[in-house]
Amino acid sequence: MIQRIQTVYLLCASLISGVVVLFVNFGQSSDGSVLNFIDFFNNDSNLLLTTGLLFYLSSLLSFIAIFLYLKRTKQLLIGKINLALNLLIIFMLIYYLQSLSGEILISMKGIGVALPLFTSVLILLANKAIRKDENLVKSVDRLR
Questions:
Q1: Measured between alpha carbons, how far is 88 from 54 in angstroms, rounded to an integer?
Q2: SS (H, E, C) 107-130
Q3: Helix (H) or strand (E) holding 90
Q4: What distance in Å separates the CA atoms of residue 98 and residue 144, rounded to the nearest whole number?
Q5: Which of 6, 3, 2 is nearest to 130 (CA)?
Q6: pLDDT tens for residues 30-77?
Q7: Is 97 exposed, middle or buried (0-12, 13-18, 19+ CB in 10 A)?
Q8: What pTM was estimated for this model as a whole?
């Protein structure tokens, strides 16, 4: 059901986690070099590689949840898992950016660090709308 608002929220969350991360900066060093999403896979750090893969997993989970509109409880469960995944991404990014020695390599954080937060908010809004639909269906079943 494309006309439901939670579908729009989940689609936006999927696009942010899968597409928008390709075009934003995660940080900039003092010498002017920029840390992009593509650098996550070209770097020797396993933490960055895992973070990059988790971004794509989050995008995939949001996209799968769109097509589970007939199974609202599973849709809610996937939303909760995706929310926990995005919080893990946030913690991993903050840990990596703060653990650099003396912030010599990265002196300025980019908007990319906040993208999992935006995705989390969209998933929370989608879960709220799904829960509202589930309550509506249950109330109609009680009337029969």
A1: 9
A2: CEECHHHHHHHHHHHHHHHHHHHH
A3: helix 72-99
A4: 57
A5: 6
A6: 666 677 777 778 877 788 888 888 999 999 999 999 998 888 889 999
A7: middle
A8: 0.84
